[in-house]
Structure formats: C-alpha cells, structure tokens
Write a structure and sequence with these properties.
Elements (H helix, E strand, L loop, with lengths): L5 H7 L3 H17 L4 H14 L4 H13 L3 H14 L7 H12 L5 H11 L3 H17 L3 H15 L4 H18 L7 H15 L4 H4 L2 H20 L29 H15 L14 H22 L6 H22 L1 H5 L9 E5 L17 E2 L5 E2 L13 E3 L4 H20 L3 H13 L6 H14 L2 H18 L4 H17 L3 H15 L12 E8 L7 E6 L2 H21 L6 H11 L3 H18 L1 E3 L3 H4 L3 H10 L8 E3 L23 H12 L5 H11 L1 H7 L4
Parallel strand pairs: 4-5, 7-8
Antiparallel strand pairs: 1-6, 2-3, 5-6
InterPro entries: Int_cplx_su10
Protein name: Integrator complex subunit 10
Pfam families: INT10
Length: 712
C-alpha cells in the first residue's frame, strides 16, 4: 500500500494527532470515493498498531464495523474502547444510544444492531455500561431515564434482589412527589405501574423484604392510577419522549399494557395477592363480568363468615376489601357511564341515550284497576247515555315498565353490584376506616361519576336529606365550572323535585320542576300521543315501604310527562286537600288535569263541586290554556240554571263586559256575548296539542305557580 511518504513527513513534525488524522481521512477516502472496504480496513488496522491509545482511530474502526454490520467486530472494538477510554466523553454518545435502544421498543434496524452489539459484550461490561449511562442521566438531571436504566439493571443483573427493587419503587414515588404532578397519569407513575411493579411482584420473597406499609402504598398508588385511567373521558397519551415498553419481559404483568385499565387493575391485584400471600380466591379473574365478580366475593365472604365463628376472626381478609373496593368503583363507573354516556362514557361508549332514576309517584295506584262512569253527555238527538271506562283509562298508563331489555339488565346489574360492594365495605369498623381513608386520599369527592352514583344510591335508600345535599353539590359544581351540560342539570333538578315531593316540600318540588322545564324548552320535541312514561327498568327502593324506582330515558319529550305528573300531584295536595286554596290554584290544577284527562276526570268533578258550592270562580288564564272539550262543556253548563248559575269570570282581565249566550248544554239565549265567543273559540282549539299547551302554561305562569306554593 502506497503512502507517498506522507506519514513520515508528518511524524517528523512530531504530531501523533496528525498521524491519526491522516489515517482516518485516508480510510474515509477509500470508503467513500473508491468504495474499497479492504483498503479502508487496512488503513485502520495499521493506524491502531501505530496509535494504540488514540481514541479517534478506535472510534473510526468501530464506525467502520457498524457500517459493515459486523456485530462481533463492533462489539470487540466497543469493549476495547470502554476499557481503554472509560472517561472519554466522546464515547458517551454511543453508550447512550445503546442504552436507549435497550429501553425502547423501536424496530429500527440501527437500534436492533446496537442491541446485538450489546448482547455480544461480557456480562460484567454490560452492567458497567448501564450503570455508567445511569450516572450520565443523573448528571443531566434526567430522572426518568435514570430510573428506567436502574430497572433494566435489576431485570438483567439483579443480585441484590427485592431490596434494591423496593428502593427503586420508593424512589419513583419520591421523585413524582418532588416534581409536583397534579395528574396521576404522569410518566413516573406509568413507569412504576406498567414496568417496575409487575417485575417487583414477580420476584420471590418480595414480601419478606418489604414492609406492609410499603405494599399498601404501592397498591394504593396503582389503584389510583388505573381508576383515573379508566374513568377519564379521553385517556391521556404519553408525553413526548415517554416511551413505555409494551411488554415487561419474563414477568406475569406482561399483559398489563394490552388490557383495559380495569382488567389491568385485576391483574395487579392478583399479583399483590400472590406476593403478600393473601387469600386470592376473593379476586375474580381479570375480565370477569360484574355479577360474576360479586358472586365470587360473596361466596368467599360467606365461607369466611362460617369459619370465623369457629376461629373467632370476624373481619374478612384484605383480599375481600380490595376486591370489593375495585368492583365497587368499576360497577359504579359503569352505571354512571350508562346513565350519562355523553358525560362519562366518552367516545368508546356504546350507549347514546341518557337516563335518570326517578321514583314512581303513585306506586299504590299502579296495581289497581280504575273504572269509573263518565258524566252524562248530551248527544245530538238530546239522548243521554252513560259511557263506561274500559281498562285503557287505568292509572297504570302513566308509567309503562318495559320488559327486561339488555340495557335495563346491564343498568340494574351494575347498580346492584355497586350497592352490594358498598354494603360489604361498610360492614365492619376496619373496612369502614380503610374505605373512608382511601376515598379521602384519592379525593373521591371530586369524581363527578362517583358522586352521580352516590346520589342515586342515597335516593334508592330513601336517605333524602343526604341525597338532596349531594344533588345540590353537583348543581353548585356545575355553576362553578360548567361541569354539567343542560341535560345533566335537568336530570338533577327533576331528581330533586322527586325527593322534595316525597317529603311534602311542594314549593321546592315545583321550583325544581319549573327550572327543569326551562331547560327542556330549548330542546323540546313532542312526545308520543299516549303520553306514557316508559321505564327502561325498575328497582324496588329501600326506605319506606312501597317505593318503586324507574329508570327513565332522559330526553325532554320523555321526562315532560313525569314533570307534569309531579306538578299535578303537588297541586292536588295544595288545592284539593286544603280549605284555604284560592281560585288561581284551582284553575292551575284544572289546566294540568287535561294532560291525563281520562284518569283525572273524577278529581275534576270534585273541583267542579267545589266551584258550584262556592258559587263563583275567577280564573283569567282559562282561555289561554283550557282546550279540553269536556272541561269546556262543564264550565258552560255551570252558567245554566241546571248547572247552578255559577258566577264565572274566565276572560282575560283586559276584556270588556262579559256577555252570555248558549254554547252547549242548554245555556239560555241572551247570555253574555264575550263569554259565548270566548268559549266558541276554545272549542275550535280542542284539537290543539295538549303537551304544547301545558308546556306553554308552565313557562308563562311560572311566577303564579310558585306563588301558589309560597306557604307550603
């Protein structure tokens, strides 16, 4: 090989660096310009002999082997460089690249080559390289990378065993606390949950090297993480540079990142049970259904209860507590996400229609068959006949429970599962203390989905004061940060009205209904002609006997009939059951009776008897909202001799002198013309949509309605 005497000339100048530089440049020229790999390698071998302590020569030879994809030779040169130049900062970049290839899950060809080079190094050197890289990360204040490298060292060369891993877990939590993350779904918690903890729990005798306090802390942090991940509407993506490995090699937690958060939590719970030697039978297999999971817990709790009578141990083991707690949160979130899919279900929810839990306002009447005789009607040929009611006029047409659908079965299973777990977690002082402490530590009062279930739980149990407090808190939260959309606010208001109604707080009930009606008006869609309240499912409520709760669709057109029924019942209690009621209240009641006319006719006849007895009736809203032909006939009849010649003032207050004339049922000619004209106009409106009329009444007469209940 010709050198043209150039190195001799440069060496004469006494510059070793110049010699190495010449060899590097010459080798690069052979490779780039002449594509002569053999000449290139020959120059580098010569240079290594002449300059054995020159890093630049060694590094160029290493780069040549990388380009040639020669793993064995590249590993050999890397080993030599690491031994001869351990403190040379120019090597650090390559070592860091190797460590990143080991930490990442990249399928890049270069990363794969670096992994292969690393694997060809002696085991001792492999560890020293990772420890060196961990120190570099520490110097650069890259805590996350340092922690991941320490985990990798433990996974590959763990000699200190569980003690070192437990220190690593606590270090992660200490750094997370120091960094002050507000969201638990941060890179440090993810590293702990997805990578470190599964590896730690798979180690033998971890429980012997860790205190029960540490185990509890790690489990609580893990539960908090997965609960957050499972219940946030839009799961957070990993931040830039936060590359969690998809599989933790060689440990039982390798399935974590592939499952849903609830399934992952079950996996971790199983690992903790095995590590801590808990009775793992309480914990259902990951992916088990809600009902199946509760059956497993219940079976083992009953078995424990039988054994405890013999052994004297009353409190079920920790596994029962944690299995029930996880199942409670999972079931209550599932329930809330079905009841309010837009708010809690997120884009992954297969449910679209929102629902609300409300009490049957007249459950005792639901089982009775009401048949009554309509009043005598005068027909065209002046012939009178009695028209009897058939079963269609039964009060049961107000709420029509459907058959058990897949949706209702899913809702009731989630609700009952959550309720069963709640009872178990509050069955003894030890569980109550731990349960309360965890909810406080996790700030569960800020979980709107859990508060939603809590409100329905209290409502179901008939604990009205607490339910009202919970619902009012949710309304206040909505006012503070607009956490609720209008439909959710409407649902809460109707639930509050329902509770107030059961407590005979009529003014509060009507106020809440009227607020809900205002929200409905923005999205009002006419309901079906039957005006039935269709139930998706029913629950037998606790508390006072005879309570029946229905799961109703929360669309305005479906809830309007319930709201009208609620206000109607309030008016009945205020007007028909009290002697001090005024004509305005009685008039409002008559307007509302039109909605469920066939079943309300007996109560209407009672109102007519009261009007006839007092001899007068003043209600200036009559012509605005009364369109029912039977009611119009009855009031026209009240003006006749047979009807009692009742003094009626039904025209708007701006009208002039009232004039009468026959409209129906024999009112004498010569009657006041204004009254006759007004009643004739009302007859023309008898086909008006009653829902629209009642909706307009509730909107326009809001202040007057509230005034009726001012002293209630």
């Amino acid at each position: 090989m010709e050198t043209n005497g150039e190195p001799d000339q440069k060496m004469k100048k006494g510059s070793t660096q110049s010699v190495s530089q010449w060899f590097v440049e010459k080798s690069q020229t052979c490779l780039k310009q002449q594509d002569d790999r053999f000449a290139c390698k020959a120059f580098l071998l010569t240079a290594k002999i002449l300059c054995p302590h020159d890093f630049k020569i060694q590094y160029q030879a290493y780069c040549f082997e990388k380009t040639a994809q020669d793993v064995k030779q590249a590993a050999s040169i890397l080993l030599e460089m690491f031994k001869n130049f351990p403190l040379d900062g120019r090597l650090d970049d390559e070592l860091k690249a190797i460590s990143k290839s080991l930490l990442g899950d990249s399928k890049d060809t270069h990363a794969s080559f670096l992994k292969d080079v690393y694997e060809h190094l002696p085991t001792k050197i492999q560890r020293e390289i990772l420890e060196h890289c961990a120190k570099l990360s520490q110097q650069n204040h890259n805590d996350l990378e340092e922690l991941r490298l320490k985990l990798l060292i433990n996974q590959r060369f763990n000699k200190d065993g569980p003690k070192e891993v437990s220190l690593l877990l606590n270090s992660i939590l200490d750094i997370e606390k120091k960094e002050g993350f507000k969201n638990v779904a941060n890179p440090y918690r993810k590293l702990m949950v997805y990578e470190v903890l599964p590896f730690a729990l798979s180690m033998n005798k971890l429980g012997q090297h860790c205190s029960s306090k540490d185990n509890s802390k790690w489990l609580h942090k893990t539960m908090e993480f997965f609960i957050t991940m499972a219940t946030q509407p839009h799961p957070q993506k990993l931040s830039s540079g936060d590359h969690m490995t998809n599989i933790v090699l060689g440990v039982e937690g390798s399935e974590l990142s592939r499952g849903s958060p609830w399934v992952n939590l079950q996996h971790i719970l199983k690992l903790f049970a095995k590590c801590c030697q808990w009775e793992s039978g309480f914990i259902a297999a990951p992916g088990s259904g809600l009902g199946e999971s509760w059956s497993i817990i219940q079976k083992h709790v009953q078995r424990h209860s039988i054994n405890s009578r013999e052994e004297g141990e009353k409190v079920p083991p920790k596994a029962a507590f944690y299995a029930s707690l996880v199942l409670l949160l999972r079931a209550s979130y599932h329930y809330a996400s079905i009841m309010s899919p837009q708010q809690y279900g997120g884009s992954s929810s297969h449910h679209h229609q929102s629902h609300v839990l409300l009490e049957d306002l007249e459950p005792k009447k639901r089982s009775k068959k009401h048949k009554h005789t309509h009043k005598k009607r005068k027909l065209e040929a002046d012939k009178e006949t009695h028209i009897d009611s058939d079963g269609s006029d039964d009060v049961s047409d107000v709420i029509l429970p459907s058959e058990m659908t897949p949706l209702s079965a899913e809702i009731t299973e989630a609700f009952h599962t959550a309720m069963n777990c709640w009872r178990l977690l509050n069955s003894n002082d030890t569980f109550i203390k731990d349960f309360t402490w965890l909810l406080h530590r996790w700030k569960a009062d800020t979980w709107s989905w859990f508060n939603s279930f809590q409100a329905d739980r209290l409502f179901y149990l008939g604990e009205n004061v607490q339910a009202i407090s919970m619902l009012q808190s949710r309304l206040k939260a909505e006012q503070d940060d607009t956490a609720l959309d209008n439909p959710d606010r409407m649902k809460i208001l109707i639930q509050l009205a329902c509770i107030y109604q059961s407590m005979a707080r009529l003014a509060d009930a009507c106020d809440c209904v009227l607020q809900a009606i205002t929200i409905m008006n923005t999205t009002y869609v006419e309901g079906n002609p039957s005006r039935g309240i269709v139930s998706e499912g029913s629950l037998t409520g606790a508390g006072r006997s005879g309570r029946l709760l229905h799961i109703l669709s929360a669309s305005p057109s479906m809830l309007l009939p319930y709201c009208i029924q609620l206000v109607l019942l309030a008016f009945k209690k205020r007007v028909l059951h009290r002697a001090d009621s005024n004509d305005t209240g009685l008039g409002h009641l008559i307007v509302l009776m039109q909605y469920y006319w066939s079943r309300e006719e007996p109560q209407f006849n009672e109102a007519i008897r009261r009007i006839r007895k007092q001899g007068s009736f003043f209600y200036h809203c009559f012509l605005n909202y009364v369109v029912n032909i039977d009611i119009l006939e009855e009031f026209a009849h009240l003006k006749t001799e047979d009807g009692g010649k009742v003094n009626l003032d039904l025209l708007p207050s701006s009208s002039g002198v009232q004039r009468q004339r026959t409209v129906t049922r024999g009112v004498t000619r010569g009657g006041k013309e204004d009254f006759r004209a007004g009643m004739e106009r009302q007859v023309m409106r008898s086909n008006d949509n009653v829902e629209a009329v009642i909706m307009k009444f509730l909107m326009e007469e809001r202040d007057s309605i509230k005034l009726t209940f001012a002293d209630s």
